[in-house]
Batch of 2 targets.
Target 1
Amino acid sequence: MATIPTLRLDRTAIDTAASLLREGALVAFPTETVYGLGADATNGTAVAGIFAAKNRPSFNPLIVHVPDVTAAEGLAELTPDARRLADAFWPGPMSLVLPLRASAGLSDLVTAGLPTVAIRVPAQPVAQQLLRKANRPIAAPSANPSGKISPTTADHVLTGLDGRIAAVLDDGQCSVGLESTIFGGDPLQLMRPGGLPVEQAEALLERTITTAMMGDPHAPAAPGQLLSHYAPDAAIRLDVVTATRAPHLGFGAGPCTMSLSETGDLSEAAANLFAMLRRMDHAASTEGSSYFTVAPIPETGLGRAIRDRLARAAAPRD
Ligand code: TXA
Ligand code: MG
């Protein structure tokens, strides 16, 4: 079957990207976290296309992107704590799972039939303009084949999805580099660590935020939290202090193939993580190594999300 090559749109071609979305086409676009694979969230056929392009299990609900809190309120009810987080951290690298309004008009595929919806207001300027011009809620998971490493450049998007989506809007590298932090439930719990450090939300709410456990009847289910995810081809050994003969992904001082951050800066490490996992996979393959090693990353701030992604990348694949 002949495929149509994916259009690479310049960052100024926002009108074209918005028109494609309104016509029901799939358009990948930059956010400050990772590139998203966007579709009109009110168009069931368009949303179904996301699952097909990614080969994604269809029980997995998607995050809906809107330009501001007002648009979010049209789709979902904000609990008092959710509103405090929204006012403080939107636009930004945070998503909230909230009770869905009956009048929202979203495709059931977006929520996987749940009574809740995950909403995000991204800050990235091109994403902001695109959402305003499209003037529809845009469903967007990360723009990579299901189970693979999330994309932080337009090239990464094309490597995984060329010919499977209409276009990618290119605005260079994502500044945060990790998917959004997801909070949900009442009281709010952490459903996925990500680009907003949990400590910042805890400081605002003046309480500890617990982590939602799968299967907990009092916690919202996060069906997307499948353990093996972000999987490179090579196996990965974590928390390796000293480089061995296998390629080594460093953090801080010390010999390594490449370093997430030579100065031990967690923001820099987060921004580099997914691109470097790709390069380490390539290094392992060219050096004939079945695995690569990764230095220990501290568990604080963005380190929590980095460790979460590394654990998933290193998890058994079956
Ligand atoms: O940074 C991000 O969040 C990126 C960019 C593109 O915005 N998007 C992203 O979306 O990571 P996705 O679809 O890959 O991750 C969505 C996560 C999944 O783990 C899914 O299970 C969870 O959100 N989720 C979505 N709706 C939910 C709901 N109603 N209840 C529980 N979990 C939900
Ligand atoms: Mg993803």
Note: The mean pLDDT is 93.
Target 2
Amino acid sequence: MKLLEDRIRREGRVLPGNVLKVDGFLNHQIDTGLFAEMGREFYRLFQNDSVNKIVTIEASGIGLACLTAYFFETLSGHKVPVVFAKKQRTANQAADVYTASVESFTHGRSYQAGIAKQYLSPVDRVLIIDDFLANGCALGGLRQIVEQSGAVLVGAGVAIEKGFQDGGKLLRESGLRVESLAVIDRMDESGVVIRK
Ligand code: 5GP
């Protein structure tokens, strides 16, 4: 998606450890106009999949998931709530929560992601939305949670996929439809190369 790609080229900064910093529009300050365009694009890509719930993970996925849900709701005419997984440090889980263990790419430690059982069920057709895809742990954890609930997972939409890391390849090979709005082929201190 050109709007996002241009923004990454202009403002993205590469940090040690393969981290792309895009705090100016995605991870700290939010450009809501850009988010709306990304949401509209996710709607275009998944509009025929009868999505009735959007699942993401706190914190950075929430804004994008909400803008995406807005398009699904207003253009499809039915309710499409957003449910975000909460990050908990302890493995102690209540019986009424679906959980999965996720290794954090940016913080280098594991946490439990959880969604209350009352918010996911077999009648749901779920689209997962997140900001970044790197090794695929966050999406993999959300997928496990959705599967535990018996809901149908129609696919995942991510803003930025780091194509030089394995997550996207592994998830697609396992049968999940993954749509990324910008794919980074390589990046280093001299800049970012985005896939054509
Ligand atoms: P994964 O679980 O696929 O390895 O990593 C995805 C998660 O880690 C995303 O939810 C995102 O919050 C974070 N992340 C991974 N790579 C980057 C990156 O290069 N920049 C930023 N800002 N976040 C990242």
Note: The pocket of guanosine-5'-monophosphate is lined by residues 19-21, 27, 60, 105-106, 130-138, 162, 167 (CB under 6 Å).
